[in-house]
Amino acid sequence: MTDEIYMKRCIELAQKALGKTYPNPLVGSVIVHSGKIIGEGYHHKAGENHAEINAINSVQNKELLKESTIYVSLEPCSHFGKTPPCANKIVEMGFKKVVIGTLDSHEKVNGKGKKILEDAGIEVVSGILEKSCQELNKRFFTFHEKKRPFIILKWAQSTDGFLDKQFQTTAISNALVKQFVHTMRSEEHAILVGSNTALVDNASLTTREISGKNPVRILIDFNLKVPRDFKIYNNEAATLVFNGEKNSTEENIKFIRIGKDNFLEDLMVKLYEEQIQSVIVEGGSYTLSQFIAADLWDEAVIITNKNLVLNKGTKAPAFNFKPNSVQNFRDNEVAFYTQNPEL
User: Fold this and answer.
1) Helix, coil or strand: residue 292
2) How far apart, in whole angstroms, are the C-alpha atoms of residue 290 and residue 63?
3) Which residues, in sequence order, are bridge partners of residue 220?
4) In what order do the strands lie in the sheet with 150-158?
5) Full-model pTM
6) What is the per-residue pLDDT across 51-73, written as a single tens digit (0 to 9) for each?
7) How far apart, in whole angstroms, are the C-alpha atoms of residue 100 and residue 102?
8) What are the residue numbers of the active site?
């Protein structure tokens, strides 16, 4: 039970960097000596120290490390990247025991970090709060195991199931939900819309309601109909434009040519090549329906304004699944769905 308590703290620490570590995973670490936490750390940003190093650096008396246990939510890395292997550092510091939340399925690690530790004679325990640690890095694991981004569908609808009134942009979410949505944007790698949504809404797809990182913007625009002076083309975020005409890069805008045949399959391949780990699909109805029809989604967030009746407009996508949780933000109900509710 004690191991679970310290691993839960590792997860709490790791979550502090949600949305900031791409392409790296979220990792937290805790160092315990004689039943007391003497060091903590988490991975803040790609290229910077990993969680284990930050935890080691936070310990004032390094002599205690030889009699300490280090907890880490993800298997310590075993390869040289922008930073040296954490598994080697743990061996160097002389830890007597390492407790791991879940092994890393990335081909460069995948048990190799654990083997380095065991070969050095260190006691290694793994699988502590494994499901929770896997959930923490659901984006990272999906990307590396399925060779595609983690897909989140999201839309707001009236209580009678419309996305707008008379096919014109209509405010549906309240102020609280807008802040929630912008927080959600800051936590994911990218956000995707089709050309019709971009043309009708002229949305910037940023996190302007909160203080947070802007996601990479993805625009599906086969015929390049969206004018260059629209907000989606401004310099506030990197933008990928999937189109049928050209491949080119202009400052923060990258045009990527793609065909209509096998579109979603090819899109996943290209997003994987661009190292995009997670995508919020925000619309419109046609784009969302394509993902639903292909069963290409991992989570969905559906916002319903219970007091808003629109009668006529763009119908919300058909989505016949049961939510695994529901939250109320005043008159707005936010339902959360997942393809793997057991996680």
Assistant:
1) helix
2) 58
3) 194, 242
4) 248-250, 253-257, 239-243, 216-220, 190-194, 278-283, 150-158, 299-305, 332-338, 325-329
5) 0.92
6) 999 999 999 999 999 999 999 99
7) 6
8) 52
